[in-house]
Amino acid sequence: MKQTLIADRIFDGQQFHHDLPVTFEDGHILAFDTVKGAKESRVDGSITPGFIDVQVNGGGGVLFNSSPTRQGIEAIGQAHAKFGTTAYLPTLITDDFSVMQQAADAVADAIEHGSAGVLGVHFEGPHLSVPKKGVHPQPHIRRISDAELDIFSRQDLGIKVVTLAPENVSPDVIAALVKADVKVCLGHSNADYDTVKAALDAGATGFTHLFNAMSAFGSRNPGMVGAALESTDAWCGLIVDGHHVHPTAAKVAINAKPRGKVMLVTDAMPPVGLDGEVSFELFGTQVLRVGDRLNAVTGELAGCVLDMAGAVANTISMLDISAEEALRMASMYPAAFLGVSQQFGSLATGKRADLVVMNDQFKVQHTFIAGQLKYSKV
Q1: CA angle, 257 as apex, 267 and 321 as ends, to 5°?
Q2: Out of 95, 267, 307, 354, which one is annotated catalytic?
Q3: Contact of 189 with 163, CB cutoff 8 Å
Q4: How far, in Å, CA of 140 to CA of 68, rounded?
């Protein structure tokens, strides 16, 4: 069925337009006009491209590691749809090999069944650096083996992202992962600058939550942060919650990188989408939520209760970034990193009808995934 939405404003990825209708059918945008036979609806606020989150550990009370099933994935996706996320990578943090297998099977099942918004999977670990492990469980941090390479090489997982520490994974193995269609991100690492550069030369294309859990930038030792800021080709995920990265550091990164190479991520945990001071267990450690911050009882930051709409609003208010650029950081730039710009990340005829309706405070009112209404505040 053809459907037309008309809002006060519509942002197509390049600029805002006023009172421009968008008509979609069969999951894709048909025209920026009214179309005969379409059901027309007027919505208040602005229509924007749907948000793409490449790092989603949980939401709606569900942690992917604890519920590595299609049903778990779908519950996480439903929670994030409330905040404008229309495409995402369920993210498994460091765990036992059997859990990795279950997670991979769950993602394959979700893709086969067309679970809304699932683009693939992000394995954040287990091949990380112990000194920069954060809340990742040390007993499961390990060298890469053929068994893990077999999982990463599967062709039924959609888009595959793997975060690893390059001091523990050789350039040859990184090159082999890239050849197997894996997007390699560097993170949870204490590597020096030269080791990071070798990983980039081998084909790594991203950095996971820039500044967090990685060797810092220094005048004599640029570290992973220095290599990330220097690279003109690699993308950097940025957590803009006011806790993980100081606004000044975030501004420096955005100014240093070529436009389009910094994307917003949430690193979201189970409390996203739930009200109140929710706590949960992570590998036997209690994680406490206080306001908009998550900390393990041992003190470390333990992911986020950040959502993508909140990340956009924070980027505008904390970093003095325009609404247009903040929206691109949540949609167009992650689409480019994932290699799906032909269908996702902006609004154009023929692209997938992933649409978000937001009010002037950047609160989500409606979310459409492939033309289907998945969330409505009213």
Answers
A1: 70
A2: 267
A3: no
A4: 17
d(CA 3, CA 11): 18
Q: Other CB atoms closer than 10 Å to residue 99's CB: what's the count?
A: 18
* Residue found under tokens 């992000």: 122
Return the closest-CA partner of residue 366 out of 81, 87, 41, 114: 81
Please give the model's pTM, rounded to 2 decimal places.
0.97
**Quick count: other Cβ atoms within 10 Å of Cβ 347?**
25
Does 126 sit behind a cis peptide bond, omega within 30 degrees of 0 on the bond before it?
Answer: yes
Domains and CATH numbers, the chain: 3-48+348-376 (2.30.40.10), 51-338 (3.20.20.140)
Contact 122, 55 (CB under 8 A): yes
Q: Which amino acid is located at 157 in the chain? A: L
Looking at residue 104, its amino acid is A
Whether residue 146 lies in the annotated active site: no
Residue 307: Cβ-neighbour burial (10 angstroms; 0-12, 13-18, 19+): buried
Task: Assess contact for 187 and 122: CB atoms under 8 A.
Answer: no
Amino acid letter, residue 199: A
Structure token pair of residue 188:
């949870």
Mean pLDDT for back-to-back runs of 10 residues, the chain (378 residues):
94 95 97 92 96 97 97 98 98 98 98 98 98 94 97 98 98 98 98 98 98 97 98 98 96 98 96 83 84 81 90 97 98 98 98 97 97 94
pLDDT value of position 287:
85
Tokens at 239, concatenated? 């957590």
